[in-house]
UniProtKB/TrEMBL annotation:
GO terms under cellular component: plasma membrane
Entry's family note: Belongs to the GerABKA family.
Organismal lineage: Bacteria, Bacillati, Bacillota, Bacilli, Bacillales
Designated name of the protein: Spore germination protein
Record's keyword annotation contains Membrane: yes
Transmembrane segments: 254-276, 326-344, 350-369, 381-405
Keyword annotations of the record: Membrane, Transmembrane, Transmembrane helix
Annotated GO biological process: spore germination
Coiled coil: none
Species name: Metabacillus lacus
Bilayer topology: Multi-pass membrane protein
């Protein structure tokens, strides 16, 4: 579009993409100053317009890039002269809401959104220190996704930061729309079903982990932030544990670990026991099992696979349907299919109870990605139990342990503090010690300041009657 300045005859051309530009900024901040003030050069115009982000350039590549980001181009000639680019992007983002995946009864109720600036603001207002560093880069030949790497200078190990920065810089992919894609691309072992970076939607959790000397990755367009390096035990620790008494927090962590082990092993143990080790079953329980399986035509492995796959189908159906319909399908479908399969003689009522409890146990995992891994692990254990019984379960566990021992997160041991054994880090792993005992940061993060506070000064207050 061609315009002229009424205060002084200065002809100029303006270009922009209307769907990408905020019309309020365009009319109130740009056009008002253009028509009401006297100016004759782009430098003068840069001083007049009350917009922070403005660039004067004649680089064609920069001009194309900025126009597609919602900038307004103003030129004093049609061809060959420098132009000024004024940021007036239309930001369409949702407001900050409560966490949906990591919801907690106690603690803050804010969650990340899809805006990079908003997410960094949620972190910075909880860490108002100058040592917090934010390094940004662009990933994706087509999507041009902005990614920010956050760490605390003087606290985080520079090797961890350089590892993350190098892997992000070396990415060559055309479209990156979410942090989950980056997780798969920069993980140490992409063949592993275990997530090697912790993703969270809670700003308070990110701040807590940054204070331990770790690295955070914020992706524009994603409501989840990636954290590394991480360990296996962190995936079974809900951040709500830190808002509870240490005795309660430790008890709930142990319950989760037991539930996960129960979810993985109980169905394979059922298959292995009925096929090879029925003499280990107490006589009273054996009579109950024989009675429940008297009319079942399928072997235990097919019976177990039928119920396990049915549970997975119900989960997928509930997740893909609208919320209210999905909840109805999950509850009604589980009751109807379970009752009908028992009455039809396809499964025993004991195995139905076992599979239902195993499904409940997998839901106790605080991190969704780890919950998916737990769901997958049951099937290899079932296969080994069918062919080798309890020996097969032990053999499959050895394969799993070997894989976990070799797994790393940003080059750090994934099984720490279990292996290599770190007694100091055990204070906040399977159980959580009181805060007076958590005076040191994790060893595997290689932080430059391992001591949080002087333990000798952390004295417990006495009761009033002592």
């Amino acid at each position: 579009m061609q315009y002229s300045n009424t205060a002084k005859e200065t002809r100029y051309w303006m270009f922009y993409f209307r769907p990408l530009v905020d019309t309020q900024i365009l009319h109130q901040s740009i056009l008002t100053e253009l028509t009401s003030q006297s100016w004759s050069s782009l430098e003068q115009l840069k001083e007049l317009i009350p917009v922070e982000d403005m660039i004067i350039t004649n680089d064609t590549g920069v001009i194309k890039e900025k126009l597609f980001e919602g900038y307004v181009l103003i030129s004093l000639s049609e061809y060959g002269e420098p132009v000024i680019l004024i940021r007036s992007s239309l930001e369409q983002t949702r407001t900050v809401t409560q966490p949906e995946v990591e919801f907690s009864v106690i603690g803050p109720k804010e969650a990340f959104v899809e805006s990079l600036d908003t997410n960094i603001n949620l972190i910075r207002k909880r860490l108002p220190i100058e040592e917090l560093r934010v390094r940004e880069l662009t990933i994706g030949d087509l999507s041009k996704t902005q990614v920010a790497v956050l760490y605390i200078d003087g606290l985080a190990d520079k090797e961890n930061f350089h590892t993350v920065w190098q892997r992000l810089s070396d990415l060559e992919f055309d479209q990156v729309s979410d942090s989950s894609l980056i997780t798969q691309m920069i993980s140490d072992n992409y063949r592993s079903p275990f997530p090697q970076l912790l993703d969270t939607e809670r700003p308070d959790r990110v701040v807590s982990i940054l204070s331990e000397g770790k690295i955070a990755i914020v992706v524009n367009g994603s409501p989840h932030v990636l954290i590394g390096p991480t360990t296996l035990v962190e995936f079974f620790s809900a951040f709500e544990d830190y808002f509870l008494n240490w005795i309660l927090a430790s008890f709930f962590r142990l319950v989760r670990l037991f539930a996960v082990a129960f979810s993985i092993l109980i169905t394979p143990i059922y298959v292995a026991t009925l096929n090879y080790h029925y003499e280990l079953i107490p006589r009273d329980l054996l009579n109950t099992l024989v009675t429940s399986r008297r009319e079942i035509p399928l072997p235990p492995i097919l019976e177990a696979l039928f119920l396990e796959l049915t549970i997975e189908l119900l989960r997928e159906a509930g997740a893909r349907l609208p919320t209210k319909v999905g909840q109805t399908i999950g509850i009604v479908g589980g009751i109807v299919i379970g009752t009908a399969s028992v009455e039809a003689g396809l499964t025993s009522n004991i195995l139905l109870i076992i599979v239902a409890l195993a499904a409940l146990g997998s839901f106790t995992t605080p991190v969704y990605n780890m919950g998916n891994t737990i769901r997958l692990l049951r099937f290899p254990f079932l296969a080994f139990a069918e062919f080798l019984g309890l020996l097969g379960i032990v053999l499959c566990f050895c394969f799993l342990a070997t894989h976990l021992l070799r797994l790393t997160s940003l080059g750090r041991p994934f099984l720490e503090p279990l292996y290599p054994p770190r007694l100091r880090d055990m204070k906040d792993s399977l159980i959580r010690f009181p805060y007076a005992s958590l005076n040191k940061r994790p060893i595997f993060a290689r932080t430059k300041q391992p001591v949080r506070f002087d333990e000798s000064k952390a004295k417990q207050k006495k009761d009033i009657d002592e």
